[in-house]
User: What shape does this take?
Amino acid sequence: MHHGWNCGDYFPDGITNGASWYSLSKGMQDFNYLHTNCFEITLELSCDKFPRQEELQREWLGNREALIQFLEQVHQGIKGMVLDENNNYLPKAVISVSGINHDVTSGDHGDYFRLLLPGTYTVTATAPGFDPKTVTVTVGPGEPKRVDFQLKRSIPQVTESPAQHLEADSYQSKYSPG
Assistant: This one.
């Protein structure tokens, strides 16, 4: 398939969007990507969905290096911790990247990982009850860049109403009978 032509179809650069090739109902890929921070793929190496056992060794040997290089790409992006001002973990904090419509959330111990291509990004961490924190980070190839967030607890904004400024005696003289 890496040459583009196979199985009666043409795939530019040997790659296709699975949804444009054939539909699949009740698959886990979209759900896991959108709801669990898990990035799943399907590798289709031949036209035969269930190749014979004697073909498996050839497929493995022919694709092993590419698969290992692909797996190593998980080390590209940013990773770190989201903590409060007392260094307590902040689970379920949202880490968003400006211009990318897919957020990730921190784990139970405040840890997160965000796969990103090399480039410069504006990254924001938010959590309920805390002020958001935004940083600009440059990601290079290879090992992930460490980006830790320490969020400060929000101070509720109290707005005063005019009634709070009334003095007790002026209120009583104005509104009391007699």
About this structure: Residues 1-5 have pLDDT under 50 and may be disordered. The two ends are 95 Å apart (CA to CA).
